[in-house]
Automatic annotation (TrEMBL):
Coiled coil: none annotated. Residues 6-118 form the Acyl-CoA dehydrogenase/oxidase N-terminal domain. This is Cyclohex-1-ene-1-carbonyl-CoA dehydrogenase. Residues 122-217 form the Acyl-CoA oxidase/dehydrogenase middle domain. Residues 231-377 form the Acyl-CoA dehydrogenase/oxidase C-terminal domain. Pfam families: Acyl-CoA_dh_1 (PF00441), Acyl-CoA_dh_M (PF02770), Acyl-CoA_dh_N (PF02771). The keyword NAD does not apply. It comes from Fibrella aquatilis. Keywords: FAD, Flavoprotein, Oxidoreductase. GO terms for molecular function: acyl-CoA dehydrogenase activity; flavin adenine dinucleotide binding.
Length: 379
């Protein structure tokens, strides 16, 4: 296995790092406090090519590999995990899903604006009563001949308000179970499609998370992705890749907190020397560096397997499971190293600690990742 990053990977890393430092860091505490969607910054992410990194240039994307994508997500997440989840959902759930399974017409109409960042997408699977148990969809997409009639509620939708288009998973034929589920492309502004309540969250507060309400929404048949009944497979297949994005996000959150803690430990003095000189702090940082490197290798492995068109289901689940646990633990240690300063907002580590938690929950909880891994092991 080649552990070296290519020239192209290094260029992506530098571009993402510069963007995060220069354009995401200013105002980040204020955006987090006010739960303010980073509209200008997301526009810039589109201009810089971060919103459709893996999409073919034919549809306005960057044509890059998954490793480049993971590297960019890591760098952006070191500073701003709200921006990185907006980017991750758009890239790996919406754009990837459309490119892999959409029709040529769907790609030209929706993928091209999504990949260039002119429009943002949302992925709507979770419901008030269906999170981990994703086959229990209560939202219905009734087949009316040349259109579907959609009714139901989707919960905790990233980009809920800011998106121009939503991929909505809904049940068409309950008797067929998960094989009766469809995924429909629903445009914002379609009559009956309403953005519901904005969630007041613990972390990733600048991303806009909403419930979405559908009442007798007419969606043309040509907006169905794949064959009739393909919707659940579509959701699972896109989530496999999405989990690499969230694993990279967790890695970035952990690495960002580690970098801040390392710097602080060399500046802060206690008992006559920099706190880094105290073994208690050295050991924390040594353990953080080791676990973060292990998480990075798992993320790169999953990304490389995807790039080589090999089975990456287990690798993606392992990367997300491990990296999200490392993120939660490493950010907590970073707060501890900062002491009282770690508990206040201007030092950034408390935000990273709050942001870390969601990586153990969304795109499949840690418990679901263990289930996926266990099934793959016996398979
Ligand atoms: N890849 C491809 N196909 C898969 C799959 C995978 N990882 N996992 C399951 N499938 C397929 C199965 O092959 C099966 O299809 P067939 O019967 O045609 O062979 C079908 O899906 C149903 O699978 P199961 O019988 O295994 O279904 P289950 O109900 O026992 O378990 C589950 C499925 C793995 C628990 C699944 O429901 C799951 O992943 N749940 C978590 C949902 C999730 O990740 N939600 C995240 C919300 S999106 C989000 O967070 C985005 C955001 O905004 C950040």
């Amino acid at each position: 296995m080649n552990f070296n990053l290519s020239e192209e990977h290094l260029a992506v890393q530098e571009a993402a790092r510069d963007f995060a430092q220069n354009e995401l860091l200013p105002g980040i505490v204020e955006r987090d406090n006010a739960q303010q969607f980073p509209a200008e910054q997301v526009k810039r992410m589109g201009e810089l090519g971060f919103m459709g990194m893996m999409v073919s240039p034919e549809y306005g994307g960057g044509g890059m590999d998954t490793v480049s994508y993971a590297i960019a997500i890591e760098e952006i997440s070191k500073i701003d995990a709200s921006a990185s989840v907006i980017m991750s959902v758009n890239n790996s759930l919406v754009c990837y899903g459309l490119e892999a399974f959409g029709t040529e017409e769907q790609k030209h109409k929706y993928l091209t604006p999504l990949a260039s960042g002119q429009m943002i997408g949302a992925f709507c699977l979770s419901e008030p009563e269906a999170g981990s148990d994703a086959t229990s969809q209560a939202t219905t997409a009734e087949d009316m001949g040349d259109y579907y009639l959609v009714n139901g509620t989707k919960n905790w939708i990233t980009n809920g308000n800011s998106s121009g288009v939503a991929l909505v998973i809904a049940q068409t034929n309950r008797e067929k179970g998960h094989r009766g589920i469809n995924c429909l492309i629903v445009e914002k502004g379609t009559p009956g499609f309403v953005v519901g309540k904005k969630e007041d969250k613990l972390g990733i507060r600048a991303s806009d998370t909403h419930s979405l309400l559908f009442t007798d929404v007419k969606v043309p048949k040509e907006n169905r992705i794949g064959a009739d009944g393909f919707g659940f497979k579509f959701a699972m297949s896109t989530l496999n890749g999405g989990r690499i994005g969230i694993a990279a996000q967790a890695l970035g959150i952990a690495a960002g907190a580690y970098e801040l803690a390392l710097k602080y430990s060399q500046e802060r003095k206690a008992f006559g020397k920099a706190i880094f000189e105290h073994q208690a702090i050295q050991f924390k940082l040594a353990e953080m560096a080791t676990k973060i490197e292990a998480a990075r290798l798992l993320v790169y492995k999953a990304a490389r397997l995807k790039d080589e068109h090999k089975d990456y289901v287990q690798a993606a689940a392992m990367a997300k499971l491990f990296a999200s646990d490392v993120a939660m633990w490493a950010t907590t240690e970073a707060v501890q190293i900062h002491g009282g300063y770690g508990f206040v907002k201007e030092f950034h580590v408390e935000r990273l600690m709050r942001d870390a938690k969601i990586t153990q929950i969304y795109e499949g909880t840690s418990e679901i990742q263990k289930l996926v891994i266990a099934r793959e092991i016996v398979r």
